[in-house]
Fold:
Amino acid sequence: MNAALIDLFGGKTFAHGVHPPESKDDTKGLPLHQFPFAPLMIVPLSQHIGKPAVPIVGEGAEVVRGQCIAEPDGFMSVAIHAPATGVIRRIAPSPAINGKMQPAFFLEPFAASTQEVLQGKPCNVETASAAEIIAAIQAAGVVGLGGAGFPTHAKLTIPEGKQVDTVIVNGAECEPYLTTDHRVMLEHADDVIKGIPFVLRATGAQRAIIAVEANKPDAADTLRAAIPEGAPISLEVLPVKYPQGAEKMLITAVLGRQVPSGGLPLDVNAICINVGSTAELGKLLPQGMGLQERVITVGGPGIKKKGNYRIPIGTTLRFILETVGTEEDISTVVMGGPMMGSAVSSLDIAITKGSTGVIAFTKRETGAMTSRHEYPCIRCGYCVDACPLFLNPSQLGLLANLGRHQEMAGEFHLMDCFECGCCTFVCPSHIPLVQKFRVAKSAVRKARAAG
Amino acid sequence: MTQSAKTLTIRSSPHIAAASSVDSIMFNVVLALLPVCGYAVYAFGLAALLVLITAVASCTLTEHLLCRVNGKATTVGDWSVVITGMLYGLVLPPSLPLWMVAAGGVIGVGLGKFLFGGLGYNAFNPALVGRAILQAAFPAAMTSWPDLGGGRYASLPPSTLALPLTKPTYDGVSAATPLADWKFNGLPAEASDLLMGSTAGSTGETCALLILVGGIYLVARRMMSWRIPLAILATVAVCSGILHLIDPSRYAGPLFMLFSGGLMLGAVFMATDMVASPMTHLGCVVYGVLIGLLVVLIRVWGGMPEGVMYAILIGNAASPHIDNWIQPRVYGSLGGRSA
Structure:
């Protein structure tokens, strides 16, 4: 359906959710730019869910941009590639976004290098088997670029007895401020289309549906035009709503199927793959290259040169902010989007494969959030109407205050919550519900681990 | 660039929020009630104005002083107690002695709200708690509706300024509310009189039109559940319609039932008190139907001509149980395909 018609009459979507201000106008029209190389890059060994990669080069080794510098440790792990031609100065702990210290390469690029990317063994989608494609994706180090960081090869490995009929290529990009997927779809539609056959072949799915929200009509048109005649690929334009890019919500929106509580998309014969990840597959696999840079939106009121940049993995936030320039009163830096992203406690944290955005807020926005008065819950039900999983955030919040974590996890499905933030976004009492749920979830996990 | 010298503020996501807040919701309810109050003063004159002022002042002061005495920051700034005061004043007879107004306000807020823990914890609509206490304590004064007539802007009925703990005196012709007229004398009122408010009744219940306008404003701003008033009014209309078809001489028609007494004010502004009503959509409908049934039951077969107050208070009591029974159906908890 045409984007304007969808605005008027609605279209396929999920129930509940919210409409935060999109705030995408500043960057959605700006073409991708290559970001400069930082004088020192910090490349963590763990940029994905699963086991950290194992270094195969030591301190002092000279590496080439795109060269594999750490190999996967087992199946739930992916390779890491050098983001620049230079020398490994150290392999040492470095601060990660979760506040912990994690081992990382400290790479110093050579100033005089041409920074030519190393190519490897190409993977031909026509001739490769599913297993070969899976292995190639793991070796290319591709993970979910939408923020989750789940190893893509693991997602595309369909377990015995399961079947996938549909692959949904996720171009919803529902987080405010972020426009990376928008630009990739617009400027690299061919990579997206080239990547889809790898996904179909690896999973055995019959068709792929590219899902794009109606606020990106140009991207939808470009992609639609790029789909070859007769290819099992279609495109669906969805009404704008947050969190439509969440896997469960997207499957419901596009296919009308509900992923069972505690289950996986596989349980309803579907998988979702981020459009950025798909584009990387289409770009990297035919040339045997590894993932060593990614597209990131650098924006928000605190940033001067807002834009979408191709930034080498391992670039520190400090270098990014110094390069693009910040307002004097910058006060909060968020990695990811403003709804689900994390506010960083240190600018020495580096960009990883899962980083979608660097959004900076000034004292004005931060102050407006932190100075809000918290009222008691007035049972308005706004959160109940917002929760896309049909949980009862109000009740969960009251139970959290009483420390009744087991009851939250049992009767009230706390562990289904994926912290999209809708409840907290709409709460007129300004109760930090998501924060309470994180604490409760962590307590439940600890209790379960303790047996 | 001295980024390192600067302090980063960290907080839990989300980092943006909708612009709604409790005080803005409450303030908008106050705005929606202002025309109703204005009409009350137009219809019942100086007496109604004094009743409203006394009601708001006694409620607000009670909350402020109770907060102070208990060493808490005052909560009158959230406007919720102002709504309570306005609603409370609007459901009282315009000629009620002011000392009774004040006493009911103190009790309504003290007992009905503060004792439960303040905003968010009150099980019952505090305005109705105040009125219920007065109804029980002063049944005669609560059902006296003197015709205030043409001199209503210049003079007060003698009852208004009655000394505390004395029996108020009423002079002049006593009017009957449309519901009492029907119940005890079998006289129906004109629907147009009820809509425009030219009948006897509590201070703010007579003009259904302005109440609806206020309600529509709040619904349009998503600050009120439309399901609750709609469920109440539809239930009352259907039930009274059926009864009226069975025996038109004994049972009043649906239009009369909808627009008489405190139903419109109760359905739109009282039953929709967020704190004391259910949270889910289905829960709101169940709650509204329950209140609607109780209204018809009390009005038709009860000893009193009006039953909205008790119907809503019983609905309030049922609300937490409705919320317990009707939880949202969790996504994916049924398996299979969604509708």
Q: What stands out?
A: Chain A touches chain B through 76 residues (CB under 8 Å). Residues 295 and 310 of chain A are 4 Å apart (CA to CA). Residues 433-449 of chain A form the longest helix (17 residues).
